[in-house]
Specification:
By secondary structure, the protein is an alpha/beta fold. It contains seven helices and six strands, in the order E-H-E-E-H-E-H-E-H-H-H-E-H.
């Protein structure tokens, strides 16, 4: 393993692969979720999922070889680093500093920072409910820009290393993180 290679990409379910308020009884993935996970699989990047408190059927994620956090009931809630660190350990990660947490809430960003991982916040999918996500295209550009700015500022104020609108923009962040890690390894 090279010092600049990302070891794992961890997803907080709500606000990244689903809307910010996923339905408690189903796994309603955002349209960009599966293609993004498939891109990570092509890059041979192990992926992990931090599920919420609801019991869901994750079979539609099986083709992406995603690892789900097991036994999260006893772990402290965000912003404690427990869930993030335990998933990384469960995945066999060697160094947390070579992991990336993709999340949609300031609390999850704080948990990622507390665990010592890179954090990528998802502004629009992280801030909007499923209903609002569906109506986003119908809103005027001023309203969309205002929502994006509010969500971006909340994630940046929490300390996110990067903020993107949704997971389909993740690839360029991962490239940049690996370039920054390679540069740090040379120093």
């Amino acid at each position: 393993m090279t010092a600049h290679r990302i070891e794992a990409v961890l997803f907080d379910l709500a606000g990244t692969l689903t809307a910010a308020d996923p339905a408690p009884d189903a796994l309603n993935l955002l349209p960009q979720a599966l293609p993004s996970l498939q891109q990570l699989a092509k890059r041979t990047l192990p992926t992990g999922l931090l599920p919420d408190q609801h019991q869901r059927d994750y079979t539609q994620l099986k083709p992406t070889a995603i690892t789900c956090l097991q036994s999260a009931e006893t772990l402290r809630p965000y912003p404690a680093p427990d869930r993030v660190a335990m998933l990384a350990i469960q995945m066999g990660v060697y160094a947390l500093r070579r992991c990336v947490l993709v999340c949609g809430s300031p609390e999850a960003v704080s948990a990622g920072l507390n665990a010592g991982v890179w954090t990528v916040g998802t502004a629009l999918s992280g801030a909007l409910s499923a209903e609002d996500m569906a109506r986003l295209g119908d809103q005027d550009s001023g309203t969309r820009d205002r929502l994006r700015l509010q969500a971006t500022m909340a994630l940046m104020n929490a300390g996110a290393h990067y903020v993107i609108d949704s997971v389909d923009e993740l690839g360029s962040c991962l490239d940049d993180i690996e370039a920054r890690q390679a540069k740090a390894a040379l120093a």
